[in-house]
Write a structure and sequence with these properties.
There is one protein chain. This protein is an all-beta fold. The chain contains no helices and 26 strands. A 4-stranded antiparallel sheet has the order 1-26-25-24, with no helix packed on it. It has a 4-stranded antiparallel sheet with strand order 2-3-4-5, with no helix packed on it. The protein starts with about 30 loop residues before the first strand and ends with a strand. Bound molecules: 2-acetamido-2-deoxy-beta-D-glucopyranose (5 copies). The site of one 2-acetamido-2-deoxy-beta-D-glucopyranose has 3 residues, from loops. Keywords: Signal.
Length: about 325
């Protein structure tokens, strides 16, 4: 299914650049925003000027928050029509963000058929544009870009266990991959593939993804051939999160190839692999805890690195309406 020119056969090596040392004592974190009505915050992206963009599954409005103030205000960027929810958000060109907008059935907690629209929000133009619509029962949770391919948006379908491709120029959508490692292992509202991100490893690009219900972190080699996204046959499960019952949500990859993962019920975990690229991935709790009993990090949903004046911080959103700033030091 995949040409060797795109994906070399050797997939195991994960070369690591010199990394930021990780203090054993843990990282300092602070709740910089608490929604007064505990609005469920779902996903986060960061603009170059350091402002945060926040989505909620309980609102059709894309919000912005100034991370330099404590308990600032959620200001509306845009409210999307015929929608109740926004899930993933990703920047695919400088200052141009794709967001996954849909109508949620509040009884079944599933996305209503034919309602998932990927919109483009370009901060240099007034009105958001439709980039593409997902077909039938498809839904979108996390969104991702492929470095070097701004014409492609990837969407994680947590219900069908699928990764969708949306062509931002033609609006065409197609299924990239459907796999057991992406399916929920329990009936709705259990979620399968949730966060997804593409990272460069040596000469290859890999799609990393979490599966919330299965508690796994996995990857598959990925590439684009003539505008069509293709993945390798082999999907590697890198880690089963511990203890059982931890549900990884969205995450961010750092330049050293490590994943900073928002984990339910209430932790930020760092997943990393030893420098030589062999050996197994390990899991370390950076903030919150595995019981979800830290009031400073409840129902972690996504994570993103700060930019501009906030570049030494990592921001975590939570289902309890929090934005938590984690100080990365340096
Ligand atoms: C932020 O607001 C919440 C209520 O919305 C409040 O409980 C909390 O103490 C405030 N934090 C600070 C640092 O003022
Ligand atoms: C919203 O839904 C209405 C009724 O189905 C439809 O007429 C309208 O075109 C929709 N608007 C958008 C922007 O999709
Ligand atoms: C979704 O759209 C497809 C194609 O237009 C249509 O066949 C199907 O009936 C629609 N489903 C619902 C539930 O409206
Ligand atoms: C869409 O989902 C509904 C409800 O779960 C199901 O009855 C229907 O068969 C599904 N349609 C397709 C095309 O999978
Ligand atoms: C990784 O493991 C493989 C197979 O066990 C071995 O051939 C290779 O030399 C190892 N690489 C490093 C960098 O240790």
């Amino acid at each position: 299914m995949f040409t060797s020119s795109l994906i070399p056969l050797v997939l195991v090596a994960l070369p690591m650049a010199l990394g930021v040392p990780i203090r054993k004592s843990g990282f300092q974190s602070q709740v910089i925003y608490q929604s007064p009505n505990s609005l469920f915050l779902e996903n986060i992206a960061v603009r170059a000027d350091s402002n945060l963009l926040l989505t909620s599954v309980a609102s059709p409005t894309l919000f912005t928050l100034d991370p330099t103030t404590i308990n600032g205000t959620l200001d509306a960027v845009h409210t999307f029509p015929n929608a109740t929810s926004i899930t993933g958000i990703t920047e695919f060109l400088p200052e141009v963000f794709a967001v996954a907008v849909s109508e949620l059935d509040t009884t079944t907690r599933r996305t209503k058929p034919n309602t998932t629209v990927i919109w483009g929000v370009d901060f240099s133009t007034a009105e958001p544009q439709t980039l593409g619509r997902l077909p039938g029962n498809a839904s979108a949770n996390g969104l991702a870009t492929i470095p070097g391919h701004p014409d492609v948006i990837l969407a994680a379908d947590s219900n069908l266990g699928v990764v969708w491709q949306v062509d931002t120029r033609s609006g065409a959508t197609r299924q990239v991959i459907k796999d057991a490692s992406m399916l929920p292992n329990a009936p709705p509202p259990a979620l399968g593939i949730n966060g997804l991100h593409v990272a460069q490893v040596g000469n290859s690009q890999f799609l990393y993804f979490t599966n919330s219900a299965q508690g796994t972190f996995s990857r598959v080699a990925i590439g684009v051939e003539m505008g069509v996204v293709k993945t390798a046959a082999e999907i590697q499960t890198l880690l089963n999160l511990q203890p059982d019952g931890q549900a990884p949500d969205d995450f961010v990859m750092d330049p050293q190839g490590r994943a900073w993962v928002a984990v339910h019920p209430g932790a930020l975990d760092l997943l990393s692999v030893p420098r030589n690229g062999n050996g197994s991935w390990s899991q370390q709790t950076i903030a919150g805890n595995t019981q979800g009993s830290d009031p400073g990090l409840l129902q972690a949903t996504s994570a993103a690195f700060g930019r501009g004046s906030q570049k030494n911080a990592l921001f975590v959103t939570t289902g309890a309406g929090q934005v938590v700033k984690v100080n990365m030091g340096v």
